[in-house]
Amino acid sequence: MSDHLTRAEKVLQRINELASVSEDDGCITRTYGTRAFIEGRNKVEQWMKQAGLQTRTDNIGNIRGRLLSGNADAKTFVIASHIDTVINAGKFDGPLGVLAGLDLIEQIIRSKTEIPFHVELIAFCDEEGCRFHTTYLGSKAVAGSFDKQLSDKRDAAGISLGEVIKQNGGDVNNLSKDAIAKEDWLGYFEIHIEQGPVLYERNIPVGVVTAIAAQCRIELIFTGEAGHAGTVPMDMRKDALACAAEFILETEKFAITGKKKLVATIGKLHIINPASNVIPGQVICSLDIRSEDENILSSSCLAIKEMAENICKKRGINLKWGLIQQTKPAICDKGMNKLLVQSIKEAGFDPVELVSGAGHDAVPVSEVSPVAMLFVRCFKGISHNPLEEVELKDIAAAIKVSDNFIQQLVKYKPPVR
């Protein structure tokens, strides 16, 4: 394990160096298209070039490094994750997969392994979707499913996604040219922290992902009537915030009491023209609903929408319900997972299968390619939080397993699709 520990130290050093690049002092924040994101992206590209990869920035803003096979007509195997973050993030969510993936390719080069496929390392530009309240922008572009209508979406400062793409040297009209054609994919592999407590509680360093939960993202706009806080009687108010607050609590109750395979989260709440002496007239909030069961997700979305409409009707509030995104469950490829399980056993660990409640770039990619994911244990399952932590020995374990996986993949004969 000593060689893997040495390599893990280099991966961790790069993770720490990337974590020093942030929009804010004192915390890690790199949202899509910002100066900090561009600086971090350039740093990752420099490391790719040092490894000897052919690099480029595509139109959406992904950094892509390519290692060519001796067979010019070979298919492409993609190793990827993202380098954007949530606000006040941890340092491992995303970058671990990119930088461990870079180490994996460096090992292929060092060992002079003859690969029967091209390898492309991609640092996706926007998996979290914090700036424009969307997600998977980078991976959708590579998978060929980017919706050009999203270019009109605007951030909190009123800047459109299309403007950001142009400012960063991209062209919305050329996004489709950056996609990897479905017939050219061999597979997709992502190393990622678990973001849950299973591996931590069971004291196991890595696990195999079997599926990724389906997800709905919704924007709700509650419109009431602003008024003077001292003069409008309580029973005559159309308080948009009070309405939103009731909706939030009822949504929490719905997700808990139903005991479904469901989670529901309101993570953003924006009061329009807030003031301490003004009854809130309009409130915008986000709703994130997830389930590994697509039917449960669909029925729950409808039930929560009906609940919101009833609350608004009772309070005299107008509701606008806007579906931002809906994804199906992503099922990981059984053939590649079999190789991954074997790779874990060869590394001396017990294979554990997990369903991911968190979304990943593997979701849009799964529509065009077989996908596989390796989860890595993180401290108490904490993520999207500065307390996010991964031990060096677990990074080393992930590297060892991934080395085995590549060797298995070199000999792998995928089924005809």
Features:
Alpha-Beta Plaits, five-stranded antiparallel β-sheet, Aminopeptidase, nine-stranded mixed β-sheet, 417 residues, alpha+beta, globular
Helices and strands in order:
Elements: H1 2-19, H2 35-51, E1 54-57, E2 63-67, E3 76-82, H3 95-110, E4 118-124, H4 137-143, H5 161-167, E5 185-193, H6 198-202, E6 206-212, E7 214-223, E8 227-228, H7 240-257, E9 263-265, E10 269-271, E11 278-279, E12 282-291, H8 294-315, E13 318-327, E14 330-331, H9 334-346, E15 353-356, H10 362-365, E16 371-376, H11 392-411
Parallel strand pairs: 3-4, 3-5, 5-16, 6-15
Antiparallel strand pairs: 1-2, 2-4, 6-14, 6-16, 7-12, 7-13, 8-11, 9-12, 10-12
Protein model, in words:
This protein is an alpha+beta fold and 417 residues long. It folds into 2 domains: 2-212 and 330-411, Aminopeptidase (3-Layer(aba) Sandwich); 215-327, 2-Layer Sandwich (Alpha-Beta Plaits). Helix content is 35%, strand content 22%. It is built from 11 helices and 16 strands. The chain has helices spanning 2-19, 35-51, 95-110, 137-143, 161-167, 198-202, 240-257, 294-315, 334-346, 362-365, 392-411; strands at residues 54-57, 63-67, 76-82, 118-124, 185-193, 206-212, 214-223, 227-228, 263-265, 269-271, 278-279, 282-291, 318-327, 330-331, 353-356, 371-376. The strands form 3 sheets. Strands 1, 2, 3, 4, 5, 6, 14, 15 and 16 form a 9-stranded mixed β-sheet that branches. Strands 7, 9, 10, 12 and 13 form a 5-stranded antiparallel β-sheet that branches. β1 and β2 form a beta hairpin. α1 (2-19) crosses α3 (95-110) and α2 packs parallel to α3 (95-110). The relative contact order is 0.17. The mean pLDDT is 94.
